[in-house]
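Hey, can you fold this one?
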Amino acid sequence: MKSPVKAYVVTENEFDTELIQALLTRRFGRSAREIHVRAAGNKQRAWTTADSLLSNRRGPTALIVDADTIDHDLTMEQQTELETMFGTSARRHMWLVVLAKPEVEAVFFSDRALLERVTGKKVSELDIARAALGPRAALLKLLPKPRSGHGAKQLVKKLSDSDFEKIISSEAFRPLIEFIQRMLALKDPPRGIQRTDEDSSSFFP
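Sure. Predicted structure:
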């Protein structure tokens, strides 16, 4: 029997999906199977996919995407737009919006020693400078080429316990972890939510 879905997480791309799946698995173990994480393909599609899940009452949904800026005012404009959109589709406790500044992967550049430990490479000032505007590209440049997947799973495995706690306590991931924790604490999955092949194909091609 397939695990019931207690929440959905929508991301922009496959790397972020793999990263979040790996973080949730390490944090919640087997219970992470009850969280359906998928990439929408791009930012705009991620917005509309999350809204579709909510408006069709598929269940609690977290959207975690890049702000694509470090400007506070521009980020808040996006946040307000998304919260207004989702607020018309579902009650507030059913959704979460996380905008990572400027991209989700920026969290790994907040601690150079951590980054060097998990990548096994010396991180230069040029690497740090590149990460200021494009942390995802800078991180991928540092990671060894994976045999399968996108490398995020191996990255998470290399985190020490203290490094892992630092990552999931960051501004980008703490709200998501707390949201998922609340959903998993529910005795039963939200009504009407069951993982099926149709669910996957309809919203996550």
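Residues 104 and 189 are 28 Å apart (CA to CA). Let me know if you want another pass with a different chain boundary.
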